Amino acid sequence: MPRYAWSNCLAVNLLLAQQHPLLSFVQFRDEYVDESLRADGRGLDVPPSQCPVCERNVTPDIRCRDCVGRTLCCTECACSLHARTPLHSVERWNGSFFRRTTLADLGLSVQLGHSPGAICRFRTSPRKKFTVIHTNGIHAITLYFCGCGLNHSVPPRSQLRRFGWWPATPLEPLTAATEEVLKQFHLLNLQGNTTGYDFYRSLELYTDNTGLTPIVDRLASFMSMVRQYRHIKMLKRSARGHSVEGVSGTKPGECAVLCPACPQPGLNLPHDWESAPEDQRWLFRRIVAIDANFRLKNRMRSSNAVDPGLGTGFSYFVEQDGYNEHVAKFATQEEISTCSGFAAIANASTKNTKGLRSTGVGAISCAKHQFWLPNGMGDLQRGERYCNMDYIFLSGIRGLERQQLLISYDIACQWSRNLWDRMEAFPQNLRLSIPPCDVDFGIPKFHMQAHGEDCQTPYNLHLKRVGMTDGEGPERNWSVINGKASSTKEMGPGGRHDTLDDACGHANWRKVVNMGSSVVRRMKEAVANAAAHIEVFEDFTARLIQERLEQVKEWVGLVEAWDAGDHAENPYASEKEKSTVAEVRLQLAEEEAARILSGEVDESAPRRLNFLMLGLEIEESQYSFTVRDKTTLQSAQTQEARTSILRQVLKFRSHQEACMPQVATYFDIDDTTSAHRAESIALYMPSTFSNEDRNRFCSPDLVRMEARLRYAHACDALDDLRRQLRLRTYFNQWKIKNVTGQNPNTRARGLQSRVEVKVRAAAARYRRCRAAYLALSGSGDWERRLRVLEDGDIRGLGERAVRAQEEEELARIRGWLDESVRVAAGGASTGDSRQKPSWLWFSVHVSADGADPGLHDAEWARARARAKRWHEEVLQIQQEMENIKRYCTALADRWEGASRDRNADRVPDEVTGEGLRAYAFRQSDMFCRMRDAFDNLWIFVGQDAAVLLSRHPAVQYPQQITTSP
């Protein structure tokens, strides 16, 4: 290559190197390091013998790190300039570098009660080394209290408060914190779960990170000021300072932030709401959710006498005196039982209660918008007991009347029983004043998957007029305040209650502020889904009418009767196989008895059923050895189990000689002497033979009997597999959300392992029975009910899978409408992160003629329910928009009235009265602006909802159906 070419390449490389971002950063870094080093110098561009502020011939050797520009000045000017900012950090040039000093060392003092820089002639003796905690560190200042006639009656604490500082004690304060640092920590604690210890230690490091400067420890004082600050803020924001009764007249729950969207008479409902038509009363129904959280434990630290709450009962926690008195009456009460095994893992988490004052917290919240309810939270002493949860529930909805109520609880199926009987033990002011006919119960949608079949319909929120409420609001609420678990675990009872009350209030207020955007998001989703589901349902119904009009009319009658309260026949229940093992055994026994009565003589007939049942039992016992732990400790138990199987096999052989006499002569079945191989002994049941050998060794009646038992066992194994998968899914989710620590995790993993063993056992039992039935009966339509179970099919329904299931059902319905979609393989793909549910979660009914797989009234009813729920969601959000605007108007009017209602003799002076009026007008203006902002934000989604409701005022049926919708 020529030399000039090398030169050109070098020039290009140098140009690229100069433009390379990494090299540019290196240059940028070097320049800023140089500038930082230059900033540590004295700044020689200013004449060293003249102060740039006062222009006197004084050496400027003081600079402030908090003032803009860090201009050098003399000592006198530094004190004069910082008369209004006495908490700035200053440094003095010592001839070589700047060394930290304080304004107090320079001679600056702070005089309270007068304008900055003024001196009170009657000031008190100086408080030297008065500690002030600020956002930029911990400062020691010289402080004077005013003692002149203007402020002779103002105590020191009030002088500090008027100066913007919060005193650590009301008597002779020597420590204070600025409102800025208290507000900063308050927000950091609420938003980022920053602990008081870490925040205060960071201020110490900000003050001096070398450990060479002694700093007084005021952590205890700071935490005391924080508690006072947030308590006073709560009272101030709830208008207790404007109330004639004052703080002492605060009623239970009066300081809580209420839900602006939930229907609340006298606050956000129209005056004529009680005269609304019957089919619209559900819009004014309250929907609440109950749950318990076992992460919010509390150790036995301090006591209520030593550490009382500043406002326990004012906002979210129940009143402690009545609550503790009620719970003490039920010291030996057990936890609430459940039909789905939820209590197992909860008990594992709360098993060790030694040294704990509280094992967790129970709470009631608004199910739709996740607002904590006033007085709806209480400590749990030993898991979820009726005495705790009943009191928390009744305290949270105290005062509710004339409204319908729906309660969502993950164990509602058990808790709702005898609720009115248990209510007799409560005082009259806590008893529910709503008649039982207006109270309904539901189970959260995700928790529903772990419940038994009997709970799937009566407590299913998808089948109730609640819109798309899923009832899982408490789980989302716990995720917000679980960050407080580590700090509140070591607190005293009063400090813990104040901290959790504050966290709940912050969570509620943030929901109020974000209500505008959340309504927009929910309405967009509701309108889109309502339009899609209503269209699909109406088209689906029209297509079915063309083929089976009378049957559709029958289905319409069933679902309307169910909605009206007639639950004699469940239209939402899938077709279920009736061939359970118990029923088949009963049928076979009755058939044997009928043969005997008819005179048929067969010596082996009485033994056939026992022979087959014993064989199935031995198969299950032999399988247990494949999952048995191979440990030395369990060797004795393993040998005992083998001996038990041998006894069963010997009994089985005696039955086999009578039922299958030729087997003993054809095969060598004397294999019971090898005790160490009891789990591998072959049984030679009819299903193990080929067709030719089966006809030779077995009677046709015996083959049919085993086939029926195998089919029944396979169906039961599927039901058991579904139940265990529900438990496995729930346990995994519950462990992630609630279990922390080595011991609780170990116990939880033990429960998970036991459930996993049961899952594998149920799957293996199904596979054995299906293979045997296939060998006995051959292929047929039954294979559409009992499919081949692959390893990938053994998966539960999680939150994603539940939604995927609904989408799959919607795709199946669309498939019946569009032939091209039905032919397409698998319908719409959900991707790896949204897997379609396994086939075992779908109950596919096969009619007698083998037609219409999966097409029955339950699927049509579910499609109708989905369309109605989304349609109700649009109506509900539309009503909530009006409720929220009325709520803001009511709060604005209430604050405006508060500016006039304060009794004149409760106002110490005109300045305080002016402050009361100013704060009330500011709060009133805030709610007015909030209402107007929400109204402007909701214009377009409100129009979309109106268009949808004009096209679909209700989920209707085609005109061919004469039954009224």
From TrEMBL:
Designated name of the protein: Uncharacterized protein
Organism in which the protein naturally occurs: Auriscalpium vulgare
